[in-house]
## 1
Amino acid sequence: MKICVFGAGAVGGVIAARLALAGNAISVIARGPVLEALRRHGLRLQQDGRSRAVRVDATDRAADLGPQDLLVIAVKQPSLAALAVAAAPLVADHTRILLAMNGVPWWFFDGAEGPLAGTTLRSVDPDGDLRRRLPTGQVLGCVVHCACDTPEPGTSRLTMGNRLIIGEALGASSSVTAAIADLLRGAGFQVAVSDQVRRDIWYKLWGNMTMNPVSALTGATTDRILDDPLVNAFCCDIMAEAARIGERIGCRVGQIPQARIAVTRELGAMKTSMLQDVEAGRPLELAAMLGAVLEIADRVGVAAPNMAALHGLTRLFAQVRGLV
């Protein structure tokens, strides 16, 4: 199987390194300091107190690699439009595209039932370019339940979690999906195959759509956010709004916000991915994490004033800081 990982950051680096360490030949598309590091010393994985390096075929030219059997996309939403153009040489009719990303994807309502079936979300795919370049029928959603970061270019560190949920964007699973799940299991991941991956995406978003933006605004780790009673209540109010939106689109949460927050609090002082982006001066993935949800809320007629306030504040923060 020809496998390429586009984006050797925190999550992409962990996936690429573990696949390579399991004996798979892996290509990685990278640029700048990351590409230089991969060519100099390979891809480094820090996990369980040890550091290992593995050689990968690192390049910044997708055309040199040609069509892939599996393309893993592990970038943040602000980078996706440019990636879709650059990845064109990697995608053929048989290519499966595994999207290891946060937030609501452009294909979210393709093949879905309900009031928004087939809806194009302008907040994440304003002109439909992503749908044309990365066909929904070839897409596998991937919900990542791992805590990762990048202490330096070309190095990915896994600090917590080991679970991936994958599922075809259009629903029913195939033998190809099963083979990809087995490939990831062989790399040491705990993998579940879902025929309702939209619901799994929404459930993860329900938890991190508050923690990420609040941490970006305040610079606080999750424990400090949740230990402040006013901020805790604000997060619960936003989650209640998101749960009502989910009910309208077939993504019922089935849990109260306080129960989910209690689980997050038990994990201790975590630095969210969006806070890591603020500290590194990278654009924030607000469109997929909040903008798309507000667009959905408007389309189904659910009021979400707390969510809108958080989105507006974080968007303004990003504009002032140049993180757009």
Note: Residues 200-321 form a domain with the N-(1-d-carboxylethyl)-l-norvaline Dehydrogenase; domain 2 fold (CATH 1.10.1040.10).
## 2
Amino acid sequence: MKGRILFTAIFVATFALSRIPGLLPSNFSVVYAFAFCAGVYFQGARAWWLPLGLMLATDLGLNLYYQQANPANDVWSGLNLANLAFNYAAYAGLILLGRRFKPQTSLVKLLGGGLLGAILFYLITNTASWLFNPYHNPEYTKTLAGWIIALTKGTGGFPATWEFFRNTLLSGGLFTALFAAAEKLTAESPADQTAGVRAPEAETEGEPEEAKA
């Protein structure tokens, strides 16, 4: 029980700290592994409300921060909110992907799942950015070429989108490995799980010695 509480605390604190603006490079995020590992390690409704609730709370805080930092940037516009909704659809997909794994799954397979989740998140969210184009980037024409530009080159004045993809993969793999390691380190051993439990008394054949007297 204590191990599970400690793991949840590490899980939540790592995600919360990673949301501090400027702390990590662009698209080098805990969020991909956070959603995937929530599906792996948490049971029932908590696998959904814990990650999605924390993401929503921090997204609201970040939107308020960016709005105050640059009032000209309308973070509450319909296009921005529609784009954000696609992000949450991607988060839900990562949680569903994580539900296909078990906590006992090997680290190699979990890493594979984390990387796959990061790729899916990248494809979904960049497609949404191309589709809604909330900042009216002229490169994002509604053609196949415009979609490919959104996935590879991006818009002028910013790093190429493939660099974001690299950071997405690196962070997805790294934080999946860290969460998996934290879960293993905080998991209760079989000895701890049975500590204090009285072993069943063996039945003896025949009558007690006192009855024989």
Note: The two ends are 49 Å apart (CA to CA).
